[in-house]
Amino acid sequence: QVQLVESGGGLVQPGGSLRHSCTTPGRATGYRAIGWFRQAPGKEREAVSCILDYSQDTTYYTDSVKGRFTISVDDVKNMFYLQMNNLKPEDTAVYYCAARDQFVWGNACLQLPYNYWGQGTQVTVSS
User: How high is the pLDDT of residue 1?
Assistant: First the structure.
C-alpha cells in the first residue's frame, strides 16, 4: 500500500509562511495528479490545490488561497510541496497531501477522489 509521508506544518502568526512537503518512499512512477486538502475543526475536508501530471501549467486552487498558496513538484526527487504565504487564522486546519493514479481533466482534480493520502499535519495560524 503506497503511503505518502508529509512534513511541515506548525504554528505561525498571521501573515507568516509555511511550506508543506510530501513524498512517496518506494514509488518508482509518477502520479496523474497531486492534491492538497485541509480539514478545519468541525468542518468537512476541502480541496486546497492540485497539479496535473507534474506540470506548473496545470495547477488549480480554491478561491480562498489563490495568490497566497503555491503547489509544486520536484519530479526528480518525487517530492510535492505546498508553499503557503500570508497565512490567515482561517487557514488553520490539518493539511493532507494526496496522489491520484487515474487521468483527470482540468480543475476536476479539486473534486475527484484520490488513491493515496498522507498522514496529515497541523497548521495553526494565531497571534
Answer: 60
